[in-house]
Amino acid sequence: xxxNNATRSAPKPQRQNRQRRRRGAQAPPAAxxxxxxxxxxxxRGMGVxxxxxxxxTATGRDMVGAVSVSSSTKPGAVLATISLNPxxxxxxxxxxxxxxxxxxxxxxxxxxxxxxCAATSAGAIAxxxxxxxxxxxxxxxxxxxxxxxxxxxxRLFQVWQTGSLQIPTNVTQRWLFLxxxxxxxxxxxxxxxxxxxxxxxxxxxxxxxxxxxxYILEGADVKDTGGSEPGEAIQSRYPDxxxxxxxxxxxxxxxxxxxxxxxxAAGFPHADPNSYYKLDPAASIQYYDSEEKLQKCEYFVxxxxxxxxxxxxxxxxxxxxxxxxxxxxxADKGYLLDYHKAGPxxxxxxxxxxxxxxxxxxxxxxxxRSTAANLQAEHIRRLAINSRPSLGSSFGDLSREVxxx
Length: 405
Fold this sequence. Notes:
- This protein is α+β, with helices and mostly antiparallel strands.
- The chain is 16% helix and 29% strand.
- The protein has 2 domains: 56-220, Jelly Rolls (Sandwich), CATH 2.60.120.20; 242-358 and 370-401, no CATH class.
- The protein is built from 7 helices and 17 strands.
- The strands form 5 sheets. Strands 1, 3, 6, 7 and 9 form a 5-stranded antiparallel beta sheet that branches. A 4-stranded antiparallel beta sheet has the order 2-8-4-5. It has a 4-stranded antiparallel beta sheet with strand order 16-15-12-17, covered by helices on one side.
- InterPro entries: Capsid_prot_S-dom_vir, Viral_coat.
């Protein structure tokens, strides 16, 4: 029996060998190694940080401006139209970062408003956001307040209140350009502040506006420094420019630009009031002088303390660079051109305006004696400043608004 047990417990190498042979026959041959895909190839030692060097996430909170409400502010008046494009926040840390990139995408945006008056003050403002980057407001009136508060993303604040408005964003948000020609390719909707009720006290009250953001910036943007004009060129919000006047600016006696007959002045969202501009050499904008002869516009200034219904600043032509420099030092309407007749369409329809940046160097000069020519020029300048425009009606004829082609 012991031998039988030994026989039963003995291993069976032949059966195991058969199984091994059978398994070896069934196993497929080892596949040849494939070449690494070209698209996934990377240099030895290149990590995730190096791969994502073209993209950064910018987080912070920047002050973008302030609005004022007084007892004379009309209900429905547009107080501010703020672009969420980082390049629009001139002078902020984010705008400097955005100059190095070409595309952006918002992940989280919150607009904060902080009042500077006491809680006993009366008055109200309405804020709203719409996904339409080309949203427009009509002239001041209660309808603007109704339109502002009809948006799902809107709030009504008392002038003494401090609050915020969360701007909707989408995780699948498409990339937007930091610089371009079409607003729908650059802007994440439109944020606007509207006066809902005037301030009840004397003077005015200010409301500070800041934006807390979390943006993705992508794509290195190398600037072309070979141009003759330094700085970034600007364009009007809408094409088809021509020289004319508007009734709500100096009673329609001074030249500005429009983009349609009977409408508001053409707005320049990125215009800097501390600079003056020179028309691109390849473009042409003309106006009619006192003898109804066509003259070329070359230099433009930003009209002080004036915005159109979109909240954009407005450019006005001047006769020379010296007048533009003088207007920058003292914004007097005497330096602006007089309106006589609507000019022809601009060429091209949406030209570029280059900011003129002068070297800020220290100049120490000895006092100079005034010559006869200088005295005569100063006398002419004073006459231009002191000349008062003739009174006109608030609404001009529509015929004078049609460009002369």
